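Protocol step 4 of 5: obtain the predicted structure for the target chain.
Materials: sequence only (see below). No template structures provided, no constraints applied. The aim of this step is simply to have a reference model before the mutagenesis design in step 5. Sequence pasted as it appears in the construct record:
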Amino acid sequence: SKHYNMEIAKKSELDGLLTEQNIEYVDAIFTDLCGYVRGKRFPTSEVEKIFKDGFQLPYSAFYLDALGGVTNTMLLGWADGDPDGLFFPLANTIKKVPWSDNTLQILVSMCDEEKNPSILDPRNMLASILKRFDDINLKPVVAFELEFYLVNKEKDQLGKPEPAAGTDKTHVYGIRELDLFKKLLEEINHNCKIQNIPASTTTSEFAPGQYEINLSHTSDLLKAADDASLLRRVIHETTLSHGYEATFMAKPFLEQTGSGMHIHMSMYDENDKNLFSNGDKLGSELLKHTIAGMQSTLYDSFSIFIPNRNGFRRIKPDQFVPVNKSWGYNNRTVALRIPSGKDEARRIEHRVASADANAYLTLASILAGVHHGITNKLQPSHFIEYGSNAGIEAEADPEIPSSLENSLVRFENSKILKEYFGENYLKLYPSVKRGEEDLYNSTFIPKEEYDFYL
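Step 4 output (structure tokens):
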């Protein structure tokens, strides 16, 4: 029952929880290509069979667009007869659902007909790439940070979101801003505990109603991506119960900063020694190979990191977001930042991804580059000296993809990513995103288009 890191759960994990609580349903959930949590709800009377035999859902569940439709340009889910895959529950993932007293949830993952993990499932894709680090005796350690906005449930007259009531000013790192939503933020933390999601600190960010929640660092990278994906769900559901909405949209307000998903990474050996530490603030040779590897696939992976047209509005100078593949120490204008702090905690902060990117695919893309950089002993470029502001923010690299279509072309032609993701996924992912774009372009004419062209 174990392929890559896929460990199928035993029914005994569930038994204790069913008897001690008034549980009527179990939600079997997974994360699709666009990063949305989907699944199937089972009454407890039917749950036993999913542990024994699994359950079926179409493969197309993993290539739905952002609206949940099947619009990929390869016509999968239509021309192929929409075949089923087999889903099995994953060990150690049963949790209470805080916003529903009578419901448990369990993570599930998809297998093919031979019961091998299907890499259509982003979680299995991450597991397959992660496995390569066993062969080189290295253990990546990561921590996710997620930014989001709180907005009013009601939109304005044009149907656009407004920052949550009372958040009309920007007070970055403000404590009053945390107090304003103290009960909500406390409940998010409480619900994270119930779901075993290690949320650590919350900060008020650079715009009204914008916050960041950090997850603790861990060497269990599959759980790290699970937690990042499920954290968004916890924040959404908890916020709704307080009369607001939370959005992880990359750039909901043109005049305000965007929301990112930052990933901190270090590399350990089997003795739990941080191999990035060597007494130098810029870290070891291994750290430099890792940076170079991240650089080698940064633009090829851009459509994973920035998965929709809105995200490209965030990639602008003077916004503390990357406009090139630079790296440096203690500098938030670079793509790959080495934070200050203790030498034994030396790490790299990858600052590129949008907050609404798929956590599994984002981490898989980063790890593919890292493995490539380490095994080929690559050397980094685009270094920015500490304390220098040598025009880095203004120097957008002409190579950086400037649109979703640009980035999809880079992805599908990437020689490096082909080695890690496989040829089929290099076709599938762009097909889903192009289908979504086709749908977007043919659904409506925005008011602003009439302002420009009527």
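Step 4 remarks: The mean pLDDT is 91. The first strand starts at residue 2 and ends at 3.
Proceed to step 5.
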